[in-house]
Amino acid sequence: MAAPLGSLGLTALATHGRLDARAWITLGCIAASFAVVTTGGVLRWWRTRYRITADAFELRTGLFTRRLRAIPLRRIRNVDLTAHPVQRLFGLTVLRAGTTADGALTLEALTRPAAERLRAELLARAGTTATAGEPVLSTVDRRWLRYAPLTFWIFGGVFAVLGTVWRVLSDIGVEPWRIGVVRDAFEEFGNSALWLTVPLALLGIAAVGSLGAVALYAENWWRYRLEWTDASTLRVRRGLLTTRSVSFERSRLRGAVLREPLLLRMGGGATVRAVAGGLGSREENCKRSQVLPPAPRAEALRVAAGVLAHEPGGDARTLFDRPALRPHPAAARRRRISRGIIWVVLPGTAALAVLGALLTPVLLYCALGYALLATPVVLVLAGDAHRSLGHGVTGRHLLIRSGTFSRDTVALERDAVLAWSFTDNPLSRRAGLTTVTAAVAAGQDGYRAPDMAAGDAVPFAAAAAPGILDDFLVTAGHGSGGRTGEGRADALSPSGRRP
Asked: Average pLDDT of the chain?
């Protein structure tokens, strides 16, 4: 009821407390709505029951339409606790026990101690196994706030907020461009020297965006703590106003991702995501899989190694710090250069040139300047993207790295790979390149190694996850007698012929 009551309060303030009949009718509607919503909430609470049986977690709800939901305890993959400021004020917590993207039971308005006890019991009955390792992997450091502005959202966030405000004003019948302050600001901006006002405007947007990024970082990651619990579960607790607690069952962890966005990488920082099953849809997975906020790269390497829970035969940090990756061929770099030229340089240059031919010759010089500036940028980014490409197999993990705006190094358990996908098109086939995707029942469902040399694709997949491709391979023996102990594995086409 906060929004309508706030609107009515503003009306009373504007009229000095002299409310007309329409205002009193509005107040009566608000009171009736409050009574209906409250009564419905009380009835829903009164008719809600839950219990844990020998093999299931059950939830019963409904007054006129009764609903009983149950999920097997053995399928529970994580138990999360969340509380926004109002719930925290009353000492309440929301518990979510998840299995798959559409399999989750949510209990609202549990007390914090009851929610903690229920989570511990659910995880214990789910049958987790013990894990050796340091219990506490990481805690928050205030110095990490310096990494908050190192994101493209310092600009995108400001424009998103301005767009939302603009849309809200338009929806209620207010034309923002007719507001005196806005109109005067645009006129002043247009009458000033653009070479001075444009940089100042960008600096102002960056300053506002940086403050917003720091505030958002503090809200999301204050009181952050990453630890292994006694129930062999990896748990993340964080939040300033809205507290969150996300759990990852050890048996559902399939790997880790070291993410290094461009600006954060330039500042020496990185983030870490867990590759785990049962986190819901792709959108939910993006929100819940992050186990480390933007932090120093050394801390990210340590946390990623802790998430992997020991790599036999060495320090797991070397998987991400000095990965043994096979580089991709020079043709992959040429593809990135051509994409940048086609999708970035040519459209902007052509648009400015056409406008210059139709409107003013000044834009023709702008087109030339844009081409001269954009081309070196494309070449640098294409080179960085090519250097980031790599793949390899080490111990019980396979490694994939790619990206320039966000360079991701993925370490996946080889046993977790369920299928392989090989993708190409006429242009990539002509260049001798293939994109290989490892499908897993966790994380983003599939992790791509783009533009790999076609001759490396099948051997890499066969070595990373032996057995999956056996039905699609033929071994060519050496010498007479058709010996197959030493040979070459070639992929077969569906018709049984080598492509």
From this structure: 82
